[in-house]
Every structure is written in C-alpha cells, then in structure tokens.
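Duplicate of #3305? Posting structure anyway:
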C-alpha cells in the first residue's frame, strides 16, 4: 500500500473523528441493527467484522449484546476514539478489537471463519472506486465461514438528477459544498465550519444491482434486501437506503 493510498483512505475519519458522534448521533437505532443480525438465522453466531467501524456506534452495542467484534478503520483518529470508549467499559474487555487499515487490502483483515461482515452507513460508497469496492466484497466472502453473511447498508444515489454543484448552509453555520461527477459516479463534499475548518468526504455510487454483481463474482448469493434496519421492504425507485444481505453458501 502506498503512502498516498493510505492517506486517502484515512482522510475522512481523521477529519471527522472529533465531531462524528455529535454530528451523526441520529443515524438510527443501533438496537435495530443488533436485532436484524440476530434474525439472520446464524446459529451460535459470535464473530462480527465491522468495516469502517469508526467511533463504535454499532460495535459497542453489538459487543454488549454478546458478539465478538473486530472493527477495521483506516483512520487512527477514529480508532483512538473507539479504544477510549472501550477502555472505560470493563464489560467489553476482549469483546471489541480494533485494526487500523484499508478494508480493500487483505492485510487489514483478521483471521477467517467470520459469522458476519458488516458494512454500515455507506462504507462501500466511501471507497475510492469500483476496484476497491470489488476487492472489499471479495475479502468479505473469503473471510466468511460457510453460511456466514455480508450485510451492507448503502445510500441509493441517483446522480443523474443531482445538480453538478450545490451549496447548503446548516443552522449551526456549517456550509456544505458538493460537486457531482456523473462520468465517475461520484459526489464530493466539503463541510466548512464558521472558523474555516474544512472536513472533506467523497462517495462513489454503488447501485443495489452493482452490489449484487460484485457479491455474485465473489461467490455469495442474495439472501435479503430491506429499505431500513427494521425490515421494512426495499422499494426500487422509492427507497433512499438499501440494506442488503448476501450469504456464503453452506455447502
């Protein structure tokens, strides 16, 4: 991995780690995620690898529910926030492990025989291109035990109708600038705070059908697709989020 690639992979987390919990505390109910994973028919399931674990919004509730979680994140800053949270929770000792690395690279992953690989809140869209998305799905398939599942939460982006550039000012004074590149299927953004601090992000669109194709190429089979973690149906053309489950065949 080159230094440039490593820096690009870590940039989002490094720039958002200190505000992530405040800015994104309304992403949804982690209890619904825990319940959704429990409902996937994984007898005696214990091991979860969470990609883009961040500050532990899901890793900690999963560990508290009895799962052993290995969280991977490219950002040292994000990992430090999560590790500090775990340190003050003695009950989580040995339940949450954090690895710093790029999920598109094999070296970031733990041992095999994982029950669940979880890629929540646009983790796959945060990857730089289709090759990185494909590599990550392939690594997930390779590390799952037979019968294990890859669970991905992705925003459904229709960039065809999105303005090429847009600027929005939030009530707290943060200005968000976005630029869409339809040819590359990407949208890039900058959050500019009143003091001039800039925090950058980038999404590469990944339609549900594209994800299905990547999973099939990795040997996974479709299992479920929801429009939300509560199991409500995914409606093509209407749902803004897709939660997709692909399973490694048991035989």
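Output from current build:
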């Amino acid at each position: 991995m080159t230094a440039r690639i490593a820096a690009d992979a870590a940039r989002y987390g490094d720039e958002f780690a200190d505000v992530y919990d405040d800015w994104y505390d309304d992403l949804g109910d982690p209890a619904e995620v825990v319940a959704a994973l429990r409902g996937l028919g994984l007898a005696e399931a214990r091991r979860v690898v969470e990609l883009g674990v961040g500050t532990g919004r899901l890793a900690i509730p999963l560990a508290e529910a009895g799962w052993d979680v290995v969280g991977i994140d490219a950002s040292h800053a994000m990992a430090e926030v999560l590790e500090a949270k775990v340190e003050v929770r003695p009950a989580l000792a040995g339940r949450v492990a954090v690895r710093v690395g790029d999920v598109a690279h094999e070296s970031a992953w733990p041992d095999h025989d994982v029950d669940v690989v979880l890629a929540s809140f646009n983790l796959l869209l945060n990857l730089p291109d289709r090759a990185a998305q494909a590599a990550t799905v392939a690594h997930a398939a390779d590390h799952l035990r037979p019968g294990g599942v890859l669970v991905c939460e992705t925003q459904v982006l229709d960039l065809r109708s999105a303005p090429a550039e847009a600027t929005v000012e939030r009530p707290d004074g943060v200005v968000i600038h976005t630029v869409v590149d339809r040819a590359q299927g990407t949208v890039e953004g900058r959050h500019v705070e009143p003091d001039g601090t800039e925090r950058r992000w980038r999404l590469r669109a990944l339609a549900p059908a594209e994800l299905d194709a990547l999973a099939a190429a990795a040997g996974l089979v479709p299992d479920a697709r929801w429009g939300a973690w509560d199991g409500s149906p995914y409606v093509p053309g209407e749902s803004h989020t897709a939660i997709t489950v692909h399973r490694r065949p048991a035989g």
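Confirmed duplicate; merging threads. Residues 158-204 form one domain. Residues 1-7 have pLDDT under 50 and may be disordered.
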